[in-house]
Specification:
3 domains; two-stranded parallel sheet; Fumarase C, Chain A, domain 2; 6 strands
Length: 443
């Protein structure tokens, strides 16, 4: 079944190539296609393109299809082009001509764009919840290990004293900014494109505000051409936000891989979280974090893939956009998997509490001793030379006393303030509005 079928056949080679992986990818969108169809049907009845009886029949059948999808029993049949066609076919089998009426006033162009936005909103909500869980794990580790020192590095050279509290806390705060960026992408996503049809509107008196409210959108894409221009833009914008989260996790994974090596020995994982070597019996490899790093680096490439697939397209719909699904839709689960396993490993991570006792790190205290001389009235440049001379002559011995008090330093981690920042960001998402809208749609 094809919604555009006018009685002419298409070469099977062409059909297989143009359909591609759409049937597989559209399973991600199935329940959102049904939700959009319920809202659209309600709107059609309000402008007298459906009777109240027809609407009631459509609602019953659409809710049944939704339940089938939720059970995991929904499939797109052979010969059916996409999820939109499958849903309409199921309605038509049950309701005859009434099922054929539901497409009035919309195109597959605005239908798939709506599905993508509803899917993306849902995935962002789940992602925010997962990121918050990872944030809590990092913050808990920061609190537990706030007093344990470790060397900080610049240019991968020992620089100044740091702490595990500072290290874990850094990645927690990074996730806050990642959710700020994701929130911006969410706000761009959370605008209703339905009613833009093929990108040029409809001669039917569609009530676009009604579908906006029914689906829990904050607003709508008012200009119908711009609504269609959102295809590709939405995916790229959200993908940049996903890549920001992935970048934070990838950097943390790199740190762990480095810090687990024998040359560092800062952190360790239990044996059951590591792998071994086929010929070296002593090996304990951090494969989890190596794979997390690689997956997250792969995710960071997605916005650039989308850019290359869309950057030379003019306004209007083009079939090129179909391929974005293959890049974009699976990315959420891939990132979720990385967040989940990274959190599990963090829970089981042990830190080395005596690192700074090793003399190889004694020069990390040199800045502290320069500052102490300055506090005694020695000009900074003279104090710097004095300590530098001791280091060069190998007579330097650190005092190892630390007195960091300013906000965000070793002695004042500001973990409560970081937690408050996260709460403020998450409160701005307002997912409750969507959940309420869906509940009312499904009766």
């Amino acid at each position: 079944m094809k919604l555009w079928d006018k009685g002419t056949s298409v070469n099977s080679l062409v059909e297989n190539f143009t359909v591609g992986k759409d049937r597989e990818m559209d399973l991600y969108l199935a329940k959102f296609d049904v939700l959009g169809s319920i809202a659209h049907a309600k709107m059609l009845q309000s402008i007298n393109l459906l009777t109240k009886v027809e609407l009631a029949e459509l609602q019953v059948e659409l809710v049944e299809i939704y339940k089938i999808i939720e059970k995991g029993d929904f499939r797109i049949e052979d010969g059916v082009e996409d999820v939109h066609s499958q849903v309409e076919l199921m309605l038509t089998r049950k309701l005859g001509d009434t099922g054929k009426k539901i497409h009035s006033g919309r195109s597959r162009n605005d239908q798939v764009l709506l599905d993508l936005k509803l899917f993306t909103r849902s995935e962002i909500q789940k992602l925010v919840e997962s990121v918050c869980e990872l944030f809590d794990k990092l913050l808990t580790k920061a609190i537990m290990n706030r007093d344990y020192l470790m060397p900080g590095y610049t240019h991968l050279q020992v620089a100044m004293p740091s702490s595990f509290g500072l290290w874990f806390g850094a990645y927690a705060e990074s996730l806050v900014d990642d959710l700020v960026l994701l929130k911006a992408a969410y706000q761009i996503t959370n605008q209703n494109p339905l009613g833009s049809a093929a990108g040029y509107g409809s001669s039917f008196p569609l009530d676009r505000q009604m579908t906006t409210d029914l689906l829990g959108f904050d607003s709508m894409n008012y200009n119908v051409i711009y609504a269609q221009m959102g295809r590709g833009k939405i995916e790229k914008t959200v993908a940049f936000a996903l890549s920001s989260i992935a970048a934070t996790i990838s950097k943390f994974a790199f740190d762990v891989c480095l810090f687990m090596s024998q040359n560092f020995g800062f952190v360790s994982l239990p044996d059951e979280l590591t792998t071994g070597s086929s010929i070296m019996p002593h090996k304990k490899n951090p494969d989890v974090f190596e794979l997390v790093r690689s997956h997250c680096n792969k995710i960071q490439a997605i916005p650039y893939q989308i850019s290359l697939m869309t950057n030379n397209l003019p306004s209007g719909y083009f079939r090129d956009l179909q391929l974005l699904k293959e890049v974009f839709l699976p990315a959420f689960q891939e990132l979720q998997d990385c967040i989940g396993i990274a959190g599990f490993a963090i829970d089981n991570m042990t830190v080395n509490t005596n690192i700074m006792d090793d003399d190889r790190y004694k020069y990390a205290y040199s800045v502290e001793d320069v500052n102490k001389l300055v506090m005694q009235g020695v000009p900074f440049r003279d104090a710097y030379k004095q300590v530098g001379t001791q280091i060069n002559s190998q007579t330097y011995e650190p005092s190892r006393d630390l007195n960091h008090t300013h906000a965000g330093s070793i002695g004042n981690l500001c973990l409560d303030e970081i937690a408050e920042k996260m709460v403020a960001v998450v409160e701005g998402y307002d997912f409750e509005q969507i959940e309420k809208a869906y509940s009312e749609l499904l009766g």
